Give the backbone structure.
Amino acid sequence: MAKGIRDTDYLAISTRIRAMENGLLSRERMEQLLEARTGEDTAKLLQESGYPDLDASRPEAMDAAIAAIREETFRDLADGAPDTRYLDFFRVRYDYHNAKAAVKAAALGTNPETMFSGLGRVPAEELLGDPDGLPGELGAAVAEAKEILETTRDPQLSDIALDRHMYADLCAIADGTGSAFLQGYVRLMIDTENLRALVRTLRMGRNADFLKGVLLDGGELDADSVLSVANGGSLPELYAPTPLAAAAESGAEAVKGASLTAFEKLCDDAAMDYLTAAQFVPFGDAPLVAYLAAKETEYTNLRILLLGRAAGLSADVIRSRLRAGYV
């Protein structure tokens, strides 16, 4: 917890969040959405849950509507949050999404505005100018990514550099708040991204040198431990004592050719397992972090469900792709 801010300073916002949690889409409501007979029935259920009409036949409009809801949530909680860095933590990834768009557009001489998100900490247009003055790691990240792209013409290397800076930014914010809960969440995020990188590397038949270039620092498992699997070690054995044990088992199967869908779901579910511990915290920063993360998962699930229904996928297929919810 940041110096001068105590758990009791979160009493008011924790009370609000407990009330707002009642509005999260429960497993039962998601099942109702999944089994709804018509689009009209789906729209009615969503409206009862406080959502506008989300038309999956127009994905861009649907995404814009969800983005507007995200922004409303940020604004709503900013007024009562004793430390707004917790909100910044969840805005960071939009800054780096915008940075990737800006860097690539600059290299190609195109306009990236249609790809920009308005959910970052800074207006996306600022990423098109001088990177000095951008918050956290963002300025250095943009400068490095531009240099890499100009030198190598490889957008993947540019994205890897931006991702590394993004997680460094997240670590810095978490450390700055002093929140053990947020710090633990970041470490789990990094371990998850490194597990994903490991599984994809092995699946593609790439070597440990390639993996070394994409691994992130800051997780519970150090890079050398992860690299040991690429050099012949056991993937399930390495992750057995961690929250990612089930995901690693599925990842080992994916390396052999099984679908990545179940693996990706289990990676996300591990994060939700961690976050649900906040349900037993009466007040403090943990309920705020968990609620914001739970809303992100809810938006992901809505998108999977609505796009799946629009594509004619069966309820069972869609159900297998939905991430574990908070309630």
